[in-house]
Amino acid sequence: MEFFKNQRLSDTFSTELGNAPTSRNELLKNATVQQTMTRSVVSQYFKMVYADAEPELIASLFSEDVDFYIPGAVDIVPWIGRRHGRSGVVDFIQELRSYTEPIKFDIRSIVVEGHQGIALGALETLVKSTGKIIKSEFAFEFSVQGSLITRYRIFEDGFAVAKAIGESENNAQEIHF
Description:
NTF2-like_dom_sf, elongated, Nuclear Transport Factor 2, Chain: A, SnoaL-like domain-containing protein, 7-stranded mixed sheet, alpha/beta, single chain
């Protein structure tokens, strides 16, 4: 190749790539290792959540500089919004548990590609202060680098969540759209 005949350019290119994979087999092996790690971390996260593990233990799965965000009405729903670091993850779990009680949480599928994982499913949650039950489908998005979650998103029916927590009634009522 004419492009690599220039030795200086070739050396610069090799230096910038460092230890990058040089063969298709090496690329596939690296992708498979990362994919296995991502699936393992995502599965571990849900096992801990199902087991009602201590918030600090769940937070140990996250990077200290995790990009953590749950979109929604932050002025109404205390546990959503942006969080910072493992302490933010602990705060999220504690707030979620203090305001809600899970009724049903079903994961339909977990899809993993490289360092990204997506979990799809449906949930039912009781809002303790209002007695309302939220029913929503969800998507959890994870990015895993090494063995830590570096990006975390939950996408759910934010309107139903805000409506359920923002209104007080004595009668339990299902909210879903």
